[in-house]
């Protein structure tokens, strides 16, 4: 069902070469920005792999077909996955559980299923409950994307040098985990592993909270102030332009962690408020310097990775 493929992880030495397996028949369920970019990357890097695409909008499927992101188009997810040895769920997280239930009866033993969702606990639990024996699920979260939406913005290089988080559990098949990580590495990504619950806690801070804050920053502005905004404001609020339906599902799915993140942010804002009211100029500068140095350290770590 799979053919051997050697992949060298970016930044590694030849001793880090691993022997993964290459899918021959990939089904992408949800051909939008991420699904379309996966299709383009696969057809560029994995020659001989047939790519089937499912979507609920015929027009988007037509665009994906014309772009070369998929080889076949389907408006029924069960038809799209028939005969596939590798399935990637690229729909909003609120749709993942029902989608797994729809495709489960037609998946062949040995099929590997993964996803691109920004929350992981719920989809991992749904997969472990829904999928039949012999069908292997590995949660994935490729940290790549854009505030743009739609397959027309898909790019084959979207995943280059980005991080993909996989979320294995004690029930995860080891070979399936290796194959999924090798797949993302083939698309140019670096992979790391997190427990699904820990993933959702950490991503609430660095992904879900920033989106909510960007939305709040836009919402709080006086119309007159918006007319004066510069590049800094636009940079900081860029992600507020993301798909509202997709982000609704993410924030609701991870609401407890996001609320905890909001409370912690509130504490830091209260600290800043106290410095503005009672602090000295030196104390305020030290607060700002601490944030600047921490961000600089983040940039250095990313440059070294």
Secondary-structure map:
Elements: E1 2-4, E2 21-23, E3 25-29, H1 33-45, E4 50-54, H2 58-67, E5 72-74, H3 77-81, E6 86-89, H4 96-103, E7 112-115, H5 121-130, E8 136-138, E9 140-142, E10 163-166, H6 174-186, E11 190-193, H7 196-219, H8 223-226, H9 231-236, H10 244-253, H11 255-278, H12 281-304
Parallel strand pairs: 3-4, 3-6, 4-5, 6-7, 7-8, 10-11
Antiparallel strand pairs: 1-2, 9-10
Helix pairs in contact: 4-5, 7-11
Keywords:
single chain, 305 residues, Rossmann fold, 6-phosphogluconate dehydrogenase C-terminal fold, 2 domains, 6-stranded parallel sheet, 3-stranded mixed sheet, 13% strand, elongated
Overall description:
This protein is 50% helix and 13% strand. The protein is of the alpha/beta class and 305 residues long. Strands 5-4-3-6-7-8 form a six-stranded parallel beta sheet, with helices on both faces. Strands 9-10-11 form a three-stranded mixed beta sheet, with helices on one face. α2 links the parallel β4 and β5. The longest helix has 24 residues, at 196-219. It is elongated and about 65 Å long. The protein starts with a strand and ends with a helix. Mean pLDDT is 91; it is low at 2-19.
């Amino acid at each position: 069902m799979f053919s051997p493929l050697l992949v060298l992880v970016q930044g590694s030495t030849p001793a880090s070469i691993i022997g993964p397996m290459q899918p021959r028949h990939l089904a992408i369920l949800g051909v939008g920005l991420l699904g379309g970019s996966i299709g383009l990357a696969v057809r560029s890097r994995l020659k001989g792999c047939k790519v089937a695409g499912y979507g609920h909008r015929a027009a988007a499927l037509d665009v994906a077909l014309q772009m070369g992101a998929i080889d076949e188009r389907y408006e029924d997810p069960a038809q799209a996955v028939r005969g596939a040895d590798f399935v990637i769920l690229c729909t909003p997280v609120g749709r993942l559980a029902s989608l797994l239930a729809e495709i489960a009866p037609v998946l062949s033993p040995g099929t590997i299923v993964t996803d691109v969702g920004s929350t992981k606990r719920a989809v991992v639990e749904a997969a472990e409950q829904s999928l039949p024996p012999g069908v292997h699920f590995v949660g994935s979260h490729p940290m790549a994307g854009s505030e743009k939406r739609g397959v027309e913005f898909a790019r084959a290089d979207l995943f280059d040098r980005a991080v993909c988080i996989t979320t294995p559990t004690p029930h995860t098949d080891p070979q399936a985990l290796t194959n999924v990580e090798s797949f993302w590495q083939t698309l140019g990504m670096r992979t790391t592993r997190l427990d699904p619950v820990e993933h959702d806690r950490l991503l609430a801070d660095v992904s879900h909270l920033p989106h909510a804050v960007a939305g709040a920053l836009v919402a709080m502005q006086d119309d007159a102030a918006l007319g004066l905004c510069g590049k800094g404001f636009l940079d900081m609020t860029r992600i507020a332009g993301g798909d509202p339906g997709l982000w609704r599902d993410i924030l609701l799915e991870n609401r407890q962690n996001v609320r905890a993140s909001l409370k912690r942010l509130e504490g830091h804002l209260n600290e800043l408020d106290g410095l503005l009211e009672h602090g000295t100029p030196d104390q305020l500068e030290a607060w700002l310097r601490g944030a600047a140095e921490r961000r600089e350290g983040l940039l250095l770590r990313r440059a070294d990775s």
